[in-house]
Amino acid sequence: MLQQALHDPLVAELMGSHTRVSALLTVHDEGLRTLSASKHFRQLLGHSSDGQALLARYGQTITDNLKSALFEGSGWTGSVRIQAQWVSLRLLPWNGLGLLEETPLQPKTEPATPSAAVGLDFPPAVGTLVLHLNDQGIILGASESLGVFMGQESSELKGVDALNLVYRSDAGQFKRLLDQVKYRTTASEGAFRMRNADNQVLLLDWTAAGDGNDIILVGRQSQHHVEAALLQSEERINSILESMSDAFFAIDLHGHISYVNAKGAELLGKPAQLLLGRVLWDRAPQMKKTQLFHTINQAKGSLQPETFQWQNPQDEVWYQIKAYPSQDLISVFFTDISTIKRSENNMRHQAMHDTLTGLPNRLALSQVLDELLNTQAVTQMNMGLLFIDLDGFKAVNDTLGHDKGDELLIAVSKRLKGVVRNSDIVARLSGDEFVITLPYIPGHEAAFNVGRKVVDAVSKRPYELADKAIYIGASVGVALYPEDAQDVESLLKHADIAMYQAKQAGKNTVRMFHSAMSTSLQTKVNLENELHHAIVHDRMELHYQPRMNPQGKVCAVEALARLRNTQGDLVAPLHFIPIAEETGLIIAMGAQVLKKACEWIGQLNTELSEPIGLSVNVSGIQLLDGHLTQTVADVLRDTGFPPHLLELELTETVLMQNHESVHEDLVTLHNMGVHLSIDDFGTGYSSLSMLHKLPVQSIKLDRSFVCELPNTPDSVIITRTVLAMATALGLGVVAEGVETDEQRDFLIDSGVQELQGFGLAKPMTDTDLHHFLKAQNIPGKLGLQVLAGPAPTQPSGQTLGAGIGQVVLDAKPN
Ligand code: C2E
Ligand code: CA
Ligand code: CA
Fold first, then answer.
1. How far is CA 359 from CA 270, 346, 383, 411, in A?
2. From CA 698, how far away is CA 658, in angstroms rounded?
3. Residue 145 beta carbon below 6 angstroms from any ligand 1 atom
4. For residue 731, which of 680, 684, 696, 679 has the smallest C-alpha distance?
5. pLDDT value of residue 126
6. What is 53-96 written as a DSSP string?
7. Residue 581: nearest ligand to its CA?
8. CB 763 less than 6 A from any atom of ligand 1
9. What is the pLDDT of residue 736?
10. From the CB of 124, is ligand 1 less than 6 Å away?
């Protein structure tokens, strides 16, 4: 710092001077310290570098003033009397150091206070002033009149820097005038003011001429009568400008700085002394790249104020620059807007990012995609887009609460980021929807593989939430640019469609987009409308699939919802149940299905010699809704359907989450006499051992195991194990999806209590069921004949007996 200071031209000039009393100061251990000093300074004050010499010469008050000014990095001016001689003291801030200069003055009266605050008198009439300067501006000679004004012998002014006599804010004009004549022989004109120790200010019109070495200045008191009031207000303006937190420059139309306040000097990193009268662009070349340069060059033509923003490349501080041009001067204010900028950036960040996960949001994604597609179009490379929707997120959110849901989303977003490369972008669209962009992907297979990795990352390991290990899945749709879509919107849409297909295909699945899918999004929207319409108008249809005991007798039927679309076709539940769950329509739909089924089976039962049971599917969403018990109670009351004939088929996902209110509702239903079973057993994560904590009476072994029987060893083992454990836990087992004789026989041999499947009876309409049951009820024409194959082999005693007791007897009326 010191070396840098000493190399500064101004400092070098002051320190090297034989005539000046000047020193470079710093604050050290709360005291002042002289880092360097001019020869004359040393002669007068001695060679000690600690503050003692300064204290001795200037007294306590002034040294304190200097100290605090230095400490604050600001400047200070004042006067002090030393051995009957008044000297003016100036301290200039210089990069944390202070440049102290002492110049002699001979005031006629003593200044009231040694401070920068001033009161102004009317200036005396002085006539013509003459100054003879060297090319450094040092006075070689001065006219008598100047001595009079300055209150000292004109000979005493010799060797003084003329700048010290110039009114501070006119220093720029003064220096420019000197520059103009320094190397020219022609005369130049200018105006600047001079000021004496009494703070009297004189406005003078000057004519300057130089011979290449010396300069002669001739000043005449300006024709304009300078009002003290005017000066006072200018003084006030100056003090405002100096105390301002804005950097301020007054610049003439050629770019010369004619005034700069302390902040302005700080901004340019140079003392005001070195800036005044200089061309701004020379002192601060970085400004040349700003609009300010343009504004100043244009200002001659226009008087329009200009405002723009600029970031200082040196310290990265943001400024708002306001330039107000007038006839011959441009006032420029630099306001530090870093804080505003920061909050602006924060706001922009917030607008572009999802606050929960910190991932880019939909807005950011579409901007990035726009850019990517533009480069991609140029480079003709493929880009993959993965559309990800979590499976089972809603259930977690509803059971464990939004806080845990949020935690889960954060955890998922981390896993997603972990799967992909840094150049890939992971964005969160909404809720549990995410998008990953894969620029420069070689092709389908690579994109598909990333999709698989995403599914694995999301689903393979559990999430630790609320002391539980929670599993969720992901459905991923993939679309490729440019093959599947050429614009952002279609690319997103097609990946979404593919994702929807992945959901349909049974979740935790990846699907590539293909054009045949493109109609299905529309289908989805249509379906939602149709579902809504059917529910509002109570037009859901029901099919019933018989459930039989090993003897082939229908002991119950499962009600399966059907939606008839506007074309009159039946839509399978696979297509509309997910939409019903997504939209919450499942609540109303579930209630309607239950009521319709109870009414119809209740009516059929009056015609049958032995009443049959009814099982109805219940979605996890219905369980979480909290109104299921009331709905069931209402339906049972309204239809008079016996509770013990009703079975509710529940899915594992919600049950396994141990939600207290769900558990209470299940107990209530159980106490009402309603039978509860676990549907699709074996596909989820439930373990048999957890089931005994729930008031559940049976499980429905999923079709996926049954269909591989009896030839796949794994399925055989699983089926046998499940059956053995279920028996041990006192749970009944129903086998689903029985299609072949071998399956049927194997299952009966293994001890299942009930069978259901296309091989025994397909789902049928209510009237078909009516006929079917009536036929079965004709004595001698027993259900065995309904079976596709020959009559099932009689099950081997014990196991089956116990099983039948479990399920079939349960379903029998008292
Ligand atoms: P689920 O509860 O597992 O119902 C059995 C599904 O398996 C039915 O399909 C049935 O037609 C089919 N199925 C029965 N036997 C066989 C067979 O031998 N082979 C094959 N391949 N399939 C067989 P559906 O009617 O399409 O229902 C599909 C799913 O939709 C149901 O699966 C159930 O989870 C859901 N669902 C149906 N109706 C409702 C309802 O009213 N409410 C709720 N929440 N879900 C329902
Ligand atoms: Ca079912
Ligand atoms: Ca099932």
1. 44, 14, 20, 12
2. 18
3. no
4. 696
5. 67
6. HHHHHHHHHHHHHHHHHHHHT--EEEEEEETTEEEEEEEEEETT
7. 1
8. yes
9. 95
10. no
Report the mean per-residue pLDDT for the chain.
Answer: 82
743 CB near ligand 1 (under 6 Å): no
pLDDT above 70: residue 788:
no
612 C-beta closer than 6 A to ligand 1: no
* pLDDT tens by residue, 525-583: 788 888 999 988 888 999 999 999 999 999 999 999 999 988 888 888 988 998 898 78
3 state SS of 548: strand
The dihedral of CA 699, 705, 710, 714: what is its sign? negative
Q: Which atom of ligand 1 is nearest to the CA of 758?
A: 18
Residues contacting residue 276 through CB under 8 Å, at least 6 positions apart: 171, 172, 175, 257, 258, 259, 260
Residues 6+ apart with CB under 8 A from 288: 281
The pLDDT of residue 229: 45
What's the pLDDT score for residue 587?
94
Rounded to an integer, what distance in angstroms lies between the CA atom of residue 709 and that of residue 700? 15
**Cα 597 to Cα 205: distance, rounded to the nearest angstrom:** 108
Which residue, judged by its Cα, is nearest atom 23 of ligand 1? Answer: 737
Ligand 3 centroid–CA 720 distance in Å is 19
Tokens standing for 247?
């950097």
Model-level pTM?
Answer: 0.45
Give the span between the Cα atoms of 200 and 206, in whole angstroms.
Answer: 18
Q: Is 682 in the pocket of ligand 1 (CB under 6 A)?
A: no
Q: How far is the CA of 424 from the centre of ligand 2 (A)?
A: 41
Spatial separation of the C-alpha atoms in residues 620 and 617, rounded to whole Å? 10
Question: Which pLDDT score is estimated for 433?
Answer: 95
Q: Is the pLDDT of residue 106 over 80?
A: no
